[in-house]
Design a protein that fits this description.
- The protein is an all-alpha fold.
- About 70% of the residues lie in helices and about 0% in strands.
- It has 1 helix and no strands.
- The longest helix is centred in the middle third of the chain and has 22 residues.
- It is rod-shaped and about 35 Å long.
């Protein structure tokens, strides 16, 4: 996570966070 400093780490972290939130939301919705 800290090694990707040249590829916009903030955008990557935001995307990962959004994907994680979506997965949690889907998991709660399905179960």
């Amino acid at each position: 996570m800290l090694k990707q400093k040249t590829n916009g780490p903030l955008r990557v972290q935001i995307l990962n966070w959004a994907i994680h939130q979506n997965q949690v939301g889907i998991a709660k919705f399905v179960s």
